[in-house]
Amino acid sequence: MSYEPQFSITPRLLARVENIAALRDRILSAAVDAAWIPALQLDARARNAHSSTAIEGNPLTLEQVRAVEEGRPVPAVPERARREVVNYFAGLRYVEKNARKKNIGHDDLFELHRMVAGAVMDQGEAGRYRAIRVRVGPHVPPPPEEVSGLMFELLDWWNQRAVALSPVLSSAILHYRFEAIHPFADGNGRTGRALALWELYRRGFDTHHIFSVDEFYWEDRPRYYAALQAVRRAGEDLTSWLDYVAEGLEVALERAWQRIQQFSAQAQAPKLILRPRQEQLLQFLREHGPMTPAAIWAAVGVSRQGAMDLLKPLLAAGLVVREGTRKSGRYRLAAARPTPARPRESDHR
């Protein structure tokens, strides 16, 4: 037997795919200084790591996740929570390194799962298909004796027939089917989302690796899980799931475009060479919105005068604007900020 996904291309889904293609073309044709690509990649990697682990209940904030990646201390954080984030960064780097791999096998999945789930599993063994029955909310995945065969069929579809579809659709199908099989005893959510990203990278959809669709899933976790469950209620018809994932990609690309505009503005200011603390300041403004001078110098770790010295060139370059008076005003990014993340909800693995 072979895996054959069932779905229909609705007018709404077709419109989403066309809009995604237009957004992607706009991003690829943007005049972004190559020097800023690494910064955009680091930003996207941190957002992916934060969102995908937060979906599973990890309590670290985005800024704490950035600190973990940069090797900075993160006080009062449980070791397991920190380890989950470290693991996911390792998994993302593995996916990026193997972005052009033509054929993915069981051993590749085992290696990715070992990286993502090593030392943080509640049951089972990292890098091995499960030998136990599991339940995920109302969903009861196939028994363990069927897992290997089902994964063989999925990998065969992925390697041989997925290329006939738009990567928007093939990544969504891979994501759902992996979660439905639930091949590992733990860590399937994080691994499945990493696989969906891998498919987008393999197909050249996100050439620079600068967007994060997992943010969309995390910001409304009940809807994410409901979208997965809707496929089961529909007798494994994936149509509604494909529309949901396409919506997420639209949102992710819109946000990536906003960030590119911010970085482009910085790259097009030839007389401004950003110092590390100015980059840090821009990141704080991006994450927290308008800030007072006092909040800025506390966050960046400089004196009041030091904060003003950092701000003046940014104001002159048009990267930052002041709201209010010099004494009582606040400073914000000139470009629109990404949509703030919603509060984390209760754990749901």
Task: Describe the structure in your own words.
The protein has 349 residues and is mainly alpha-helical. It has 14 helices and 2 strands. It has a two-stranded antiparallel sheet with strand order 1-2. A hairpin with a 6-residue loop joins strand 1 (320-323) and strand 2 (330-333). Helix 4 (79-97) runs parallel beside helix 8, helix 7 (167-181) runs antiparallel to helix 8 (188-202) and helix 13 (293-300) crosses helix 14. The radius of gyration is 21 Å and the shape is globular. 37% of the residues are buried.
Biggest beta sheet summary: 2 strands, antiparallel
Strand order of the largest sheet: 1-2
Strand/helix succession: HHHHHHHHHHHHHHEE
The CATH superfamily title of the largest domain: Fido-like domain
Tally the helices. Answer: 14
Structural class: mainly alpha
Q: How many structural domains in the coordinates?
A: 2
Mean pLDDT metric: 89
Radius of gyration: 21 Å
CATH topology of the largest domain, which one?
A: Fic-like fold
**How many E strands?**
2
Tell me the name of the CATH class of the largest domain: Mainly Alpha
Shape: globular
- Which band does the percent of strand residues land in? under 5%
Question: In whole angstroms, how far apart are the ends?
Answer: 30 Å
**pLDDT < 50 runs, ≥5 residues:** 335-349
Which bin fits the share of residues in helices?
55-70%
CATH architecture of the largest domain: Orthogonal Bundle
